[in-house]
Amino acid sequence: MPSIDVDRFLAAGCITINEAESGICSELWSAPLLQKWHSIKVSDSIAGNPTYDPSVGPVVIADSNPPLHSMVQNGLLESPALSPFLSLLGSKWVHMTFRITPENPTIGILRVYILPDDVENRRFPRFDARLQQLRAKLFQLLDRSSGTWDGNIKSQKVKSNGHEDGKNTSGNPQSLLQMFNTLPAPEPQPSEVNDPDRRKSMCNLLENKVRGLKTIMYPFQCRSAALMLQRESQTEPVPDPRLPKRYVDHLGTTYYVDPVVKTIIIDPAYYDSVCGGVLAEEMGSGKTLICLALILETKNIPATVPELYRGAPIVRPKIGSLMDMAAAVISRSGVAWKENFGFDSPDTEGIQYNAILKAIQRNPGWYGKEAVIHPGRRTRRRETAETQNQQIYLSHASLIIVPPNLVTHWEQEINKHTSGLRVLFQTKTLSVPPVEDLKEFDIVLFSRAVFDRLYDKRGTNLHVSSQLATLAKVHFKRCIIDEGHVLGASSQGGAKMTNLQRVMDCLQIDAKWVVTGTPSVGLYGLENGVQGSLEQSHQVSTDIEVRDLRKIGVMAAVFLKARPWANTLSDTRGEWKPGKGRNHVLWDDYIVKPWSSRTADGQDDCLKAALGSLIVRHPKLDIVPFLPSVTERTVYLDGSYQDILALNLFSMHIIFNAVQSERKDQDYFFHKSQRTELGRLVNNLRQASFFGGQFWPKEQILTAIRRAEEFLDEGEVEISAEDDELLRKGIEFGWIAVKNEMKDSAYRFVQVPVYVENFPYGAGEHWSVAGSRGGKDPVCTVAPLLLRLQDCMRRYLQDPKTLDDLAEKGFISEQGDQARSKLYPLLATNSKNPNDPPHHSNNSNGGEDEDFTMKRERIRLEKQKSNRRTIKSMMQAAQITKENEGLGSEAPVAAPLAKTRLISTASAKLSYLIDQIIQHQASEQILIFYENDNVAYYLAETLEVLGIQHLIYAKGITTERRNRYLAAFTDASGSGSGSGGGSKFRVMLMDISQAAFGLDMKTASRIYFINPILNPQQGAQAIGRARRISQQKPVTVETLVLRGSMDEVIARRREEMSPAEQRKCKSGRSVHILDDKPIYDWIRNAKILPLPKDVNCEDGQAQMAKLAEPQNIFFLREHELAPNQVDKDDWENEDMGSLALKDDVREFANSMRRKRKYQDNEEEESSASSKRSRHKWMALVEVASFFGRARRVVQAVEGGPSLAMHAMNEQEDEQW
Fold first, then answer.
1. Low complexity bias located where (predicted)?
2. CA 1140 to CA 1192: how far, in whole Å?
3. How many CB atoms lie within 10 A of CB 238?
């Protein structure tokens, strides 16, 4: 009978069994014979039908130990410890021996021997899934300690996870964030690189001796660059990462266990190491510089021929010269011939190699590859595709793909840090040069948008197809994807496959790198390290970690093609692996699923090995000393009277709705069917923390009050005493709001009211927006009117005589009336009070007849034209006088204008920001992050009035324009306005959604968040725009919080929330914020805030937030600098100054006024039984009327330093 020696088995471990559980009687148990090792030999009849090869027959296990007595063996096999594993014994997958320990005669030991899956597989096929599961269960039960194997049962039991039983070295399982932050720092080893050229380059990187690099790198940057080169240079196969843990049996044999397919093998599979990886250094740590240093140091090292195509002979049409043949070998071998023969290097000891260089250029390195020729049209029955041999040329080029908004950044960094690089930019249009020229570049830089266009889905664009074909004929040395975290959204095949992935699959590339500070949303550096803080504030849910892991898996399998994660069924068809359908290796099987079901440390070795092989990064603690210090503080502001008034109007309507709808059914604000509308409420509430006067017209407030009073008077619905008090407080406040003229003016003009003192020539009433009282000095007006006033006065700032004449002729007053009527068209031109309604003729009530009215109007217009002609001649004369007298910029501003100053605004946040900008703009550049476009519009208008040069980085402008704005803002060569020098633009308004990744704004050192950001990581990304390793100043960050507003609860919750809760409300958008219960409850339980008691309701100036220092309105402006100085004409064509405001403001005001014509034509009251339903319906109408309130959508258009263009949200216009 065939036999197999027991030495072919693995001495895996032991199972202990006591006398009571053994099933052996006491007489046999106490027999001295059992204190020696005996084999358990199971016959086929006991095991059922063992799975041996019928052609071979039954096989016995040759063991030197005598067989166990049948009565003892039967008792053991029937015991609970062994009975489940009878089939394993009978199938010869497992062998066991038994003895009783002399030291402890009540305990017996079963030694377990396991046959590896790659041993004797023909005799004992290991494809039975049921037996695989049983063996895996048995393996988990084994005690693998050497003491127990030797019979000393007092030794500590060791489980298969490698930890001592009963002890978990780290307590709770390690989180993914913690694992990411504890990855070992790069430790490059040049001695492990065989190629001498690459080994020398590694040493140069580590020693900071990169030729052509203008910047001295920090030590951690040198290590990262050197490790990247080492990863690119190592081509030796590495063990299967699915088997990261090595086991050793008790006879010294090494083996591996696959926890997914339940295999146990001696010889693991080997795969090519990952050529590339993920450069995941911290934000602002100089990842671009690291990549440029790597490219610069290896620019003379060409790409290598893939191993599959090496050795193919070069067939020439005729016999070549010895020089040509030698040159062909050199160009194909991958050696750094450029440096050796002085192509770029002067270090050639005076020897000229012109003939050699020409020979190499005549014989470029290439290899042949079979290319599939796809048919132009797809058919249902597609024949075997044709192939042709295509020449692929080796190059020295590195392919870089960057987001469109980072193109300028890379151009600047290349110019700043390097010299001698040949760079091809493909960032606007697609124009790839021929192969002969393309392979000579050192860098080919694509914008992501242009690179995506290389994929032609239909194959009909011949130009695009030819461009891609040209790229496919060049073998690139490496590819770098900047901000490559976007690759995590792709998939391996299928509908979600991105154009970038499809194009990449057509190219030949040696090494691939993903460059990103955050490989996934939940993976970021911890400022204070891992110890102490992770268990409390950085724990996240398993579901979130699973999403992060899947994104990393996509990067590994789809882009980096890391095996075995990138294996397909065809890749592994020849690879032996037991188990049906197990050849297609999935990241989910080995990484994601085990992670989601783990209970302790020691079960994530595969993930640790995978992350370690992919990611290059230093712990943040190692980099923090090189980053500028950051001072963060939250500034709590007391709201102005108008701020509190606006917030209370929201609370009033929420209270009215809650009480009248009885907090139930669809009429209620917070019913699930009102989710979208509630989201709009939150958006408006957040906006109201900056300024909310543009919400709630007087008529709507009045209607809501009367309905609430009617609800109380009728008493049809029984309400609690608390609700009764809430309703009465709301009504009381509502009457205060209705009578507030400034609130009404803010709504009608859709602007932030401001106060100006010493208005020139006493013309304030013509520029006022707040009725008769607003025309007295100081004057209540708005920014667009001040911009128009500045434009009118600009030519005569130094000419007081002409100004006096113009004022006497009524020019200033007339311009004010015109500007005000354009801003709010329904104001009558001849009305002195902007609160007066327009006059209408009514003959039936004794009004003037039409003929007389028209005649009077013609007389008025003729007189106005005559005055204009006089004013025009005066202007021309003033200009001649000015030229003759030589008035220049040295003359001061005319006295009537010199004392006109802005003293207050209706917004506490706006006033605070103005004070801060004025204080710091001379020495620091300032970033202001906003969430709402209206807020940016209000702030930009005020900055324009004060002559503060600013730019805006918003969603509504093109990427190219944003890049130019960024370049202008960070231009250190510009003439700054203060001692700080640098760019003339001192302030950048930036949409928080546009500030997440990659932007380098290191010239800014002061940051303001207009609203608190709920997700700290989004805030950290925004701060990272200025906190760069090349930043020269400490960074100051302030978050503005208005007391009593939703800002307060968001700021508080941000400190309390776990990362899982933050990710749930990740973007700060309203719908996500409502997922947080404390914030949701705060909105639902709105309260009326007490109004300041010391403020006179009729004193408009007392209702404002004063500036710390009044600011002049009229001043001598410097020549305005356009962001793209090379495109000044384009800038001037799209001027965004105050003159460009008037038509857009007028159009916007007209649209708003049309919306206000909506009248509530409520039907007459029905019977008493329907009154309760009517109250509910009217409560819902209040919701609808509020949510249907038109909101201006401000869009930053292309051109000029201010945000001035705005448009209506058409969907909301049509809502009701």
1. 830-845
2. 17
3. 14
